Amino acid sequence: MKEATGELNMTVITVVAIAAIAAIFYAWVWPSIQVSIAKNTCEAACTEEKKSGCDSINRAEIKKSNFDATTYCK
């Protein structure tokens, strides 16, 4: 029985560690990836002289339900 308890403890530790890594990814890494994807989409869709508007894309703009990166071509 003592062996089974040790295995359960390791399982719980593993699950908690994976959840912590997922939370860190979702809180810090994923927002920057979304902004990067949106800026790259904007730059790919805009002509060379209209790419300056792509720099104004931020996390708050991406959260809008109807976000379209191509509207930032100025």
Describe the structure.
With 74 residues, the chain is mainly α. The chain has 2 helices and no strands. It is rod-shaped and about 65 Å long. The N and C termini lie far apart (68 Å). The mean pLDDT is 86.
Unreliable stretches covering 5 or more consecutive residues: none
Helix content: 55-70%
Secondary structure tally: strands: 0
Radius of gyration: 21 Å
- On the 0 to 100 scale, the average pLDDT is 86
Q: Specify the biggest β-sheet.
A: none
| Number of helices, where a helix is a run of at least 4 consecutive DSSP H or I residues | 2
Helix and strand composition category: mainly alpha
Order of helices and strands: HH
Q: How much beta, percentage-wise? A: under 5%
Q: Topology, please?
A:
Elements (H helix, E strand, L loop, with lengths): L1 H44 L13 H4 L12
List keywords for this structure.
74 residues, mainly alpha, rod-shaped
Short synopsis of the structure:
The protein has about 70 residues and is mainly α. It contains two helices and no strands.
